[in-house]
What does this fold into?
Amino acid sequence: MTIQQQPTLDAGLESRANCSNQPYQITGVTGQNLGTILWTSNSGAPGTFSNPTSLNPTYTPSATELSSGLPIVLTVTAQ
It folds into this structure.
């Protein structure tokens, strides 16, 4: 039997920065006991992550996200 500790993840400080059509560098994310991580966007037409399985990727919003004017919520999950 192998007992694996639960992952812990700290997404750092919340940012409400306006990326103004520019890629947004996610910084300050740390974790322990991580198997896999995955970044997602709440958008129906999400932009792209430079690497959605890295702790601190860059996010480039889609044209749809930018034109909607709605907040973009980025979520990171760990297993």
